[in-house]
Structure formats: structure tokens, C-alpha cells
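the two lines:
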Amino acid sequence: MLVSAGLVAAAGALLPWARMAYAASPAQASPAELDAFLKLGQRLTGREHLPSDISARLFAALARGDRAFGEKVTGLVRAMDAAGITDMRRFKGSAVDNDAALKALAVSIVSGWYLGYTGTPVGLAVKDDTQFITYTGALMFEPTRDVTVIPTYARAGTDYWAAAPASIATD
Amino acid sequence: MRVNLTSHWLGRAAIVVAGALALGAHAQDSDLIARGKMVATAADCAACHTSDASHQYAGGRAIGSPMGNIYASNITPSNSHGIGGYSEAQFADALRKGINARGEHLYPAMPYTAYAGLTDDDVHALYVYFTQGVKADDNTVPATKLPFPYSMRWTMAGWNLLYLGNGMHPAQGSEDARVARGHYLVDTLGHCSSCHSPRTFLMAEDASAYLSGAKVDGWIAPNITSDAVSGIGAWSEDDIAAYLKNGHVKGKGQAGGGMAEAVEQSLSHLSDDDLYAMAAYLKTVRGIRDPNDTKAAFEYAGARAIPALGEREPVRPDGAVDPEALRVATTTDGATLYAGACASCHQPDGLGTQNQYFPSLSHNRAVGMSAPDNLVMAILHGIDRKGADLHVAMPAFARDLSDAQVAAVATYVEQHFGNPDVQVSADTVAGIRAGGPKPLLLRLTPFLVPGGVLVVALVLWLVVAMTRRRKRKA
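prediction for all of em together
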């Protein structure tokens, strides 16, 4: 009796470790859903290619605790199709832009791609609702990639920043 | 008063004249001291005889030999602890014959087999430098205590009889002046073969495998013969000279371990002429190929594609729930370990930084060799090398990563950036961590000792018997 109680307690203690498998793709999302979500991400960020595994991870993070997330995505795609938004330059002032729920969903997807995480970080707290998506793949690093570097990644030798970048004259 | 003044000025003049005379002699000596210093630098005396930069040449550094630690002696002109009392002849004997002033044999950790080839001029310059150009330091060096039978220094006399030659490996064909200079630098001053040639059963350099590579303290001193695949035949003279000077060549390789030390203390201070002479000579060394090698190590660039971003940047789903989970660092996933420990400098694609300060892992000899030893050693012990151009430092991971983790990340690096035929196991890492394979002689020592005692007893009996017989005859 004591032994089995101990075993149950040990199993309970180990449960978090069992769940610590690295997230690949969420079990509940169908391949069609994931594909649609990837295409939506490409349309929202104006990019032809985005990594599908990162897209699946973003889907899982945003869908966390929301069984209807897949349907919401489908709804957003339909609304964008209906509004004729093939290019994001036509988004502003469109019907989708004026629908608060749809706009919030679109912004949450775009922000996940650019920031590389979902949720809102809370400074100096160990726990918040953020979900890691990607670090080096975060789109916000792209525009300045030629001059700055992703923090914690070396661009050149130690103290390289002491000399002005060669491209500074043309920037 | 006037008399006093005159004598004062006369005294001054005398001092000036004496000073000028001394200066003349001094100039001659200082030339010789400078030359001796250059020879000492080329011979890399400091590598072993300086264990602490503030005690230049004061000895005390433990030279790890398979038989045990051998402590390098104090070679400053200290009368009590150094070589202050040495005559030039005694100094020359220590260098070229391996016998110190007390008549004791040196262990061949001191490369006297190489220094046997020193010219008299160089020995003289070295003597002047070490007696006049180096500050006396009374540092006491721990006594070298090797286990029996290696504690018997006199046995080195027999070893010397077998292996102490003229300090030079025979040249291949005729040598012009430049190649001959390189030959002298490589064989005698640089004693390159003491690391780069494999050792025989009795720990002598194997002349038949001259410069074909050897394992030293966990590192592989690579094959530096002229073979294009196993050796450095595909390196240009510019490449070799630059490697010796800076410790790295883009797209070829970097120096680590003992070679990094040799670059820092010795080779980076040599003149370009001397470095090119060494390169020219190395290109003439007979090529020796390892049948395991199919292409030059620096040509390898991995066979497997780099894993997708999602795999390289793993998510701990409960990281936000259990903050303690973030401390868990026991993964043996090569991609995760690479992303965490290596990618910030060598970049996720393994290509290093644009200026190659953090070098590419593709087209890199340490990662392309048919054995992973140098890659594993670099991971375990890091790199700290001051070449002529840069000071390069890579952190050591020996205390942070387990054998299984080092094996996983090394395998990942080999598969994606280097030689895909190389698989690294935790056992391999454990062996390298322990300093590499033990030589056969050492493994057999427990069995050799009783045999050796028997042989010594037999020789003694023979000597006694012979002297008795001779006495009887007389």
C-alpha cells in the first residue's frame, strides 16, 4: 500500500518531465489546417516562403486552450479572400481591418512571426503567458541583418564593434 | 676646492671612457644575446621551462609523459637552482647529449635528440643568452619521480645509444640554402617531429613514419608530410607559413593545444623568411598516406543538411509552467546542444563569422580528420592562442558537458559540417578526456618489471663471472 502510494507520488512528480517532449506539430491540427495557416502567415507577412515547422509551432501556441482556433483561422482566410486582400497593402481600411476580432487575430499571427514568441512577456517574472516560437527565425531581425546582428550571435571577432561598419557611408 | 673640482671632472671623464669601452664590449654581447634569444625562441624553450610568465625560464612546469610528470628544470643563471654554474661545454652536453652538469641523464621529454643537431654557433649564442640575457631566478623545481623502472636515469644511456643520432632526419634529395635552413628549423630548433612523428615501442620517434602524425596528450599532432590527402601537400607555402605565424588559415584549419602554444611562444616570433623556409622544407618531406583517408581533411563540409529551424530551436512546452525546467541541461540531442553551446559564435549554419575570427566548421581540419580527437579536445579544453595577428579564445566545455553530450554535439558537427564517416561515442570522449591511449610500453610495464629485473640480474652475474675469470687469469 505504502509502496504503491509512493509509486503514484513518484509518477505524479515525474509527470511534467513526461510532457517535456519537444513540440513538433500539435496532434489536434490536421495537415490541411496547418497548410492553410502557413499560407495565411505568408500572406500576412508578405513573404513567399516561411518554414512550415515554425508555422505549426505558432499554430500550436496560439491554439493553446482554444479549440475553436482552427475555425477562426478559416474565418480570417475567408474574410481576407472576400475583401480581396492578396497584398497586405490593401489591408488598411478593409473590412477585415474594421472587424476588431479578425484584426486582433491577424495581428497576433503577424506578431508571432516577427517577435518569435506569443503572449506578453512580464519583466522580472519567472512565469508569464509567453510561448517560444523561434529565436533566429524571428522576422524582426531581417531588415537590419546587414548591419546589426541577432543578439547573442557573434557577427565578427571580439570588439568588432569598435570599428564603424563598412556600409555606414552608404546607409 | 679647485683641485677637488678637477679630480671630480677627471673622475667623470674616466667613468665616461670606461663606460664607452664597456659599451663596445656590451654591444658585441648584446648582439650575441639577441641572437641567442632568437635561437631560444625558435627552439621554444619557454614552452616547457616557463610555467609562470613572471618567472621566465625558471622551470617547474610538469611535462605530462605517459610514464608520469617530468618537471622542466630551471634554466636561468641562478647559481643555486639554475644553470649558473654551467660551463659552455656542460651546457652543450645537456642540449646535445642529454647529460646535465652533475652527469645525470635527462629524460627525452627534453628534445635533446633534436637539439643534437644544433650548430656550435647557435649553442654559443644560447649559452651567452641564458647566462647573461636571462634574469637569475631561484625558483625550486619539484624533483621528477617516475615509477620504477623509469626512475633509473642511467638506463637512458642505453636508450641514447639506440636513438640519439645527429638530430637531423636525412634530406630527400638535394637541398638549396632555403630548404636546408627550413630543414634545420623543422628538425633541430622546432623539434617538430617530437610531436608529429609516432613513437616506437621504446618511445623513440619512428623514423620510418617521420612527421606522419601522432597522438599527444589527447590531441592528434596531424600528418605534416607532403602527402596531398593525409598530409599538407595540398597546402601552399603561403598557407603553411601563415599557419605557423598566425595559427590559422581560412578554409584549412586552426592550431589548438600544444600547437597553439608553439605558435604563440615560438613560431609567431620567427621571421617570414624562416617560416617560408620551414614551409619549403615541409613540402619536400616524403609523403606518407593513411589508408583510412580518402580526401584532405579540410575538404570535408558535411553530408547531412542542417536540421530545420524548428528542430534547432527546441521548445520546452512546460518551460513557462515550471521555471525549474529551464535549468535542466541534460539533453543529449546534438542539434539542441549545438544551438546552445556552439551556434552563437560558429553560427547556426556552421560557417563561422564573416571575418572568420570564429572559424567555419566546414573546411576545417579538426572537423574533417578521420578521427574526432582534435574536435573533441577543442570542445573539452577550448582554445587559447595568441598568433601574430589575433588572440583567439574558445571556452572549454569539459566541466559543463558530460561525455555523452560531447559525443552528441561532436557527432552533430561531424555529420553536418565535417567528415560524415566519423561517429563519436561517449566511450571515445571518455578516452580522450583521460588523455588519449596509453602507449604499449606503459601497458606492459607491470609485466616488464619482473623480466627487467631478471635481465639485470643476468647481466650482473655475467659481469661478475667475467671479472672473476679475468682475475683468475691474471
